[in-house]
Amino acid sequence: VVVMLVADGHGGGEASRHCRDHLLDCYLASAAGDPSAPSLLRAGVAACERMHEEVVGMTTAGSTITIVALNLARLELSVCNLGDSEAWLVPRSGSPSRLTEDHRLDSSEPERQRVRGMGGHLAHAKNRAGDPAGPLRLWPGGVAQARSVGDADVGDYILARPYVRSLCVPTGGCDVVVASDGIWDALYSSAVASSLRSMRRQSASQAATAIIDRAINQRHAYDCHGYLQPRDDTTILVMRIRRSNSAADVAGGGASSGGGCGCVVS
Q1: pLDDT tens digits, residue range 229-243?
Q2: pTM to 2 decimal places
């Protein structure tokens, strides 16, 4: 099994660093040697909830979590996510497909309904002029997503139970991309897919670095102040899967610019 993890912190880096250092150990222990998709999905839920319990006892910081695991023998992908660090599957041809669920309050009606049903207060922050600005947020705490690890100051409104799904690797193989919102807020998924397809002869690490550079350049296209300094955690992992009839060759790589955490284990 090859596993990718991206943890994008907010309100400080303590939560994402704790997840980087401990979540995958908890995930693999929870799977207990069973690499099937049902086992890995249960392990993802258990690991996220365990990390949440640990993080809320040590900090008010929070973190998104996205885990993608590839079972090389069964050619299965198992996905777990909390928050807005997205995973996408890029086939050799055709449109990319999203593997994760969006938990931003701005865009998720189910999460808005859940939080309001619990009595949570949703509102935009205000700028210096007193006008609403930025994304819709949950108060207290002011977080922009309703699912995460940590965020102790938000209380029970935060849900640490991840969205989970499994799927088969498509015939012909694919690229799987896991990245923080610093990538997806700057680039459409179609642009990321185009970059990956144009760099098929290059390594996964080279492709990841090129996408990081493109995202940072896009964010500074109309503002050169602090040029090439990331405005948000900008982390990406790329897994390249080349499938035969009964097996897969896998290459992985990643890049980061900012405070996000990403890792690949096998």
Answers
A1: 545 578 999 999 987
A2: 0.90
DSSP 245: S
Amino acid 32 reads: A
Report DSSP letters for 121-186, one per residue.
Answer: EEEEEE-TTS-EEEEEEEETTTBSBSB-EE-GGGGGGSB-PPEEEEEEPPTT-EEEEEE-HHHHTT
Q: How far apart are CA 79 and CA 240, in angstroms?
A: 16
Residue 35: is the preceding peptide bond cis (ω within 30°)?
no
Q: What is the largest CA-CA distance in the chain?
A: 61
Residue 19 is encoded by which pair of tokens?
């997840």
Q: How many CB atoms lie within 10 A of CB 142?
A: 16
Residue pLDDT, tens place only, 205-263: 999 999 998 998 886 544 555 545 545 578 999 999 987 655 556 767 776 665 556 55
Return the H-helix or E-strand segment holding 263: strand 261-265
